[in-house]
Amino acid sequence: MSTAAPSAAPIVALTEAAKHFGPVRALDGVSLSISPGDCLGLVGHNGAGKSTLVNVVNGGLAPTSGSVAFPASGAASALAAGVRSVFQELSLCPNLTVAENLRISHSALKGMNWRAPARAEIRAALDQVFPGHGIDADAPVDTLSIAQRQMVEIAIGFAPRGTEARLVILDEPTSSLDAGIAEQLLSHIKQFCARGGAVIFISHMLGEIFEVATRILVMKDGKVVAEKPAGGFTRQGLVDAMGHVATEAAAAQAARAQGEEVLHTPEGLRARKGEIVGLSGLAGHGQAEALARLYLGATSSWRSPREAGMVFVAGDRGRDGVLPLWSILRNASISILPQIARRGMVDRTREAEITAEWKARIGIRTDDVTNPILSLSGGNQQKVLFARALASAAPVVVMDDPMRGVDVGTKQDVYAMIRAEAARGRTFLWYSTETEEVCQCDRVFVFRNGEISAELTGDEITEERILEASFEMEGA
Ligand SMILES: Nc1ncnc2c1ncn2[C@@H]1O[C@H](COP(=O)(O)OP(=O)(O)OP(=O)(O)O)[C@@H](O)[C@H]1O
User: Where would a tag sit more exposed on the chain, N or C end, judged by fewer CB atoms within 10 A?
Assistant: First the structure.
């Protein structure tokens, strides 16, 4: 697939690179080289060390031992060697426009007249990666949907910015994109690598890894446990190498007894007790806003009862979920404080017991829950948000694309947990950009242009029907 010469010097070469955070061996002696034309698929469970590896490659972290070199360019730094990173935690400045965000990472744009070239460059990059994107270069970033923000970050990663991108590292790049936009990105990556660029592609979506990667590297506990050309792995082999026992998503729609209607919004969303209700459609068509309206409407009264009737699992954890200055324990337990308080005093022993129970149930990888939440990997932070919601007694759980960054094994565990909780009478409203997840639901509302374009139940919930409803109003 590559047109690059096979003998080309590696863009980056790691030799026995290690990174320790106190006693945690986040990276434990990894040797690796990436050459022009390579698309390296990087997989591993949450906390396996993938983000640490890429931060060592891009110069964000200095290795505790071992070395990082850039033989192809002879450059001393990752930046000078043309290494670019698109992070899992979206890192744009929300109060600046799309073009202004490009300017921040484009030091060659100097002087008074930088705006016009900045606009032109980000437009060209967006057009190249996501044809038909519809994003205005002058739009403030906080007016964009999470999918659009992810698209802008990716486009900035590939934009020339005065030099040439030689290696682009994409950490969970499609986690907020719907299937059509994700496909545009995968096709761009293939073209970029065919022209002699290289990509490190981190994803928990194994289908994408198989579609785009020329080589796959599996990490576990800070080490590389398997590395082969992509064709050398089967899906099951990959899951096994990561150290998961794959459980089938079968019986996803096992019959659940459903009770009375517990909510019915003016726009037509409705759900019964014990029902798992999906919100689907192309990203950015009003699903997240519908959930936010529902949640804020149910929880914003100043006379709100002691026990919350509804809890929320954020997908944009940096903006809507994680309390960054607090510990893992406090982040998880905040939803159960009313349950465990006596005469206004929190029972700290009970708080620690409940948090420990959820840490074990949902597999939060930490030795000490009093550590800061930001010491956890992205996927493990997401698990804390699940624990926060599921540990509460709220009968309705609202989830805004909540599986971003969660590894394949844990996803199956969380699906099972959601089904078990629904069987006990809890109601779930679940917006997801992944069809596999939407197909776990009992009833699905498909959104198009901010409105419900279809309501599907039982056997009607198929990828074809969802796509049909996502597009059908276009031709009208
Ligand atoms: N700044 C830090 N301080 C302490 N521990 C850290 C820090 N950064 C990472 N770690 C730990 O290093 C380990 C590897 O984390 P890393 O973020 O590299 O995992 P990951 O494979 O990228 O996970 P995910 O799929 O969830 O993003 C984890 O145990 C994490 O808790």
Answer: C
Q: Could you tell me if 165 and 84 are in contact, meaning their C-beta atoms sit under 8 angstroms apart?
A: yes
Cα of 165 from ligand 1 centre, angstroms:
26
Which of 19, 42, 46, 52 has the most ligand 1 atoms within 8 A of CB, as the residue to mutate? 52
Q: Is 164 exposed, middle or buried (0-12, 13-18, 19+ CB in 10 A)?
A: exposed
Beta bridge partners of 43: 218
228 CB-contact burial (10 Å; exposed 0-12 / middle 13-18 / buried 19+): middle
Residue 220's contacts (CB-CB under 8 Å, 6 or more residues apart) are 44, 45, 48, 241, 242, 243
Give residue-wise pLDDT tens across range 194-212.
999 999 999 888 889 999 9
- What distance in Å separates the CA atoms of residue 225 and residue 221, rounded to the nearest whole number? 9
Calculate how far, in angstroms, residue 24's C-alpha sits from the geometric centre of ligand 1.
9
User: 12-242 and 261-309+394-475: same fold?
Assistant: yes
Q: Which CATH superfamily is domain 12-242 in?
A: P-loop containing nucleotide triphosphate hydrolases (3.40.50.300)
Backbone phi, then psi, for 403, in 5-degree steps? Answer: -95, 15
Q: How far apart are CA 331 and CA 381, in angstroms?
A: 9
In angstroms, the CA 152 to CA 98 distance is 7
Amino acid at the residue 457: T
Instruction: For residue range 125-181, list pLDDT tens digits in order.
Output: 999 999 999 899 999 998 998 889 999 999 999 998 888 899 999 998 888 888 889
Does the CB atom of residue 405 touch ligand 1 within 6 A? yes
